[in-house]
Every structure is written in structure tokens, then in C-alpha cells.
């Protein structure tokens, strides 16, 4: 691993200032992706800006029908939160299925979203629930946040501070996970909201995406059977050592049915 400077600011403005002053620096949240990448010499940042010292970036609050989770809140806290379980049970269940205990205790929601791994779980919840990503300078709707493979709408020196979730009428998540990493080969988050039905798919393509045909079918009939005969085009899906594109397309339908069943429970 190449030598690097280590900075630990205690406030968001200091962190943003440090990032602007060090273009080759990287923000360190949980480090679940960044540190292994550095160990493999696939990334060699000149400095790490550790966000763990900023108390205001962590926490869970419920205000009416709006659930807000601080960017530095670990997955384990989301999974164990009675507030999350009461407001959006599917989100607590999703967080509890991320990685292993070490990952859940160190990994953070903000780090997961900023990294935008194509197989990560949180992007499916954020897009599926129509959440809003809050940064140090603006608010970004979920539909505008995810742009592609490891690519988001964040500027180079922009910092996620929290995520705001609207409380759905009901929601469910199901994933077919890799037995080794527990990443989603395919994960589907389904939510029925006051604005309509949203279906978000992770793990299947270069980035999380919505499935309009599934949304339309569930808007008319919110049951697993409504999506049983639907499918997504395999042409744009991932194919790798874990699964062919056609198999991932099949899994989208299977996981969508399971997600709807979970929502109905």
C-alpha cells in the first residue's frame, strides 16, 4: 500500500474544505470497499479524509412520515433500529442482510451510495422508495442520483450528509445473494407509495434501475402473480462468472415476486 496522509475533521465544512484542497484525496466512511482497493493497489489516494469524527453525520430520526438516516450510520444500526423497523420494515430487513457482521458494523449507508457498487443493496431501497440524498450543498432525488457503474450525480468535492426516506404504504425486498460476498446477484425492492408503485433492481446491470412494466402491473394488482409473467431484457444485464445475463433476467422476476410477498406480510 502506498503511503498517504490521514485527516480526521470534526465538521462537514472542514471535511469539504480538506477534499477541495486535496484533489487526490478520498473520503473514508466505513472503508469496506476503499481499503481493500488500496491494499490491492487499485487505488492510491494521496490522503484519506476520515468522516468518523463528524458526530452530526450519524443518527436515525422519524418526523411524521419521513425517515432520515445520517450518512455515517452503520448498516447494523439501521437493521437494529426500532424506529426503522416501525417506519419501513423492509429497509431494516435489507440492512440486516448486507455482508457479514464485520461489514454491517463498519459499512455506512452514505459510503454505500457514494460508491454505487452495481450489486449493493442500499441503492435498491433508495431508488425503490423514491428517497432523497442530502449533501453538504443540495438535495438529489433518487431518480437523478444513480448514473452508471460506480457513477453518481455527486460532484468531486461533494459530501453526502443524510438520506431522507418517505414512509411507504408497504414495501419489500428480496435478493439472490452470492454465497461468498453476500452481494446481490439480483435484488429487487418493491414499494407501494402514495405516489404509486416503484420497483428497483440491483445486481442485474451496471447500475440500479427501475422496472416500469413491473410497476404498472403492480399498480393494477399488488400481488406476486401480477409480475409472474413479466421479464426484463437480458441484453443490457451483467454476465460474469457468477451468472449469465439470461439467468439474471430470470432472477429479476423471481425476486420481484418474493419482494411483493414480503411487502404483503
Across the major sheet, the strand order is: 4-5-10-6-7
> What is the name of the CATH architecture of the domain at 170-264?
2-Layer Sandwich
Q: Using DSSP, what is the number of strands?
A: 14
**Span between termini:** 48 Å
What does this structure look like?
This is Carbon-monoxide dehydrogenase medium subunit. InterPro entries: CO_DH_flav_C, CO_DH_flav_C_dom_sf, Diverse_Substr_Oxidored, FAD-bd_PCMH, FAD-bd_PCMH-like_sf, FAD-bd_PCMH_sub1, FAD-bd_PCMH_sub2, Mopterin_DH_FAD-bd. Keywords: FAD, Flavoprotein, Oxidoreductase. The protein has eleven helices and 14 strands. Among the domains are: 1-50, Uridine Diphospho-n-acetylenolpyruvylglucosamine Reductase, domain 2, CATH 3.30.43.10; 170-264, Enolase-like, domain 1. Helix content is 34%, strand content 25%. The protein has 265 residues and is an alpha+beta fold. The longest helix has 20 residues, at 245-264. The strands form four sheets. Strands 4-5-10-6-7 form a five-stranded antiparallel sheet. A four-stranded antiparallel sheet has the order 11-12-13-14, sandwiched between helices. Strands 1-3-2 form a three-stranded parallel sheet, with helices on one face.
Amino acid at each position: 500500500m502506498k503511503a498517504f496522509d490521514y485527516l480526521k475533521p470534526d465538521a462537514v465544512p472542514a471535511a469539504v474544505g480538506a477534499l477541495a484542497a486535496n484533489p487526490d484525496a478520498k473520503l473514508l466512511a466505513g472503508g469496506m470497499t476503499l481499503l481493500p482497493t488500496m491494499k490491492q493497489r487499485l487505488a492510491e489516494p494521496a490522503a484519506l479524509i476520515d468522516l468518523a469524527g463528524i458526530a452530526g453525520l450519524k443518527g436515525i430520526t422519524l418526523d411524521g412520515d419521513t425517515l432520515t438516516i445520517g450518512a455515517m450510520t452503520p448498516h447494523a444500526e439501521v437493521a437494529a433500529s426500532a424506529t426503522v423497523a416501525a417506519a419501513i420494515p423492509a429497509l431494516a430487513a435489507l440492512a440486516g442482510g448486507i455482508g457479514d457482521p464485520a461489514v454491517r458494523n463498519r459499512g455506512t449507508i452514505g459510503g454505500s451510495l457514494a460508491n454505487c457498487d452495481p450489486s449493493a443493496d442500499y441503492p435498491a431501497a433508495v431508488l425503490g422508495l423514491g428517497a432523497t440524498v442530502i449533501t453538504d450543498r443540495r438535495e438529489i432525488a433518487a431518480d437523478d442520483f444513480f448514473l452508471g457503474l460506480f457513477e453518481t450525480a455527486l460532484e468531486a468535492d461533494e459530501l453526502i450528509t443524510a438520506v431522507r426516506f418517505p414512509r411507504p404504504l408497504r414495501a419489500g425486498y428480496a435478493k439472490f445473494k452470492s454465497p461468498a460476498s453476500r452481494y446481490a446477484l439480483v435484488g429487487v425492492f418493491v414499494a407501494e407509495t402514495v405516489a404509486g408503485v416503484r420497483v428497483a433492481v440491483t445486481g442485474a446491470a451496471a447500475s440500479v434501475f427501475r422496472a416500469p412494466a413491473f410497476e404498472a402491473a403492480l399498480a393494477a394488482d399488488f400481488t406476486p402473480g401480477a409480475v409472474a409473467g413479466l421479464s426484463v431484457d437480458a441484453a443490457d444485464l451483467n454476465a460474469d462468472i457468477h451468472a449469465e445475463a439470461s439467468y439474471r433476467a430470470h432472477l429479476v422476476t423471481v425476486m420481484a415476486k418474493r419482494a411483493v410477498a414480503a411487502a404483503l406480510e
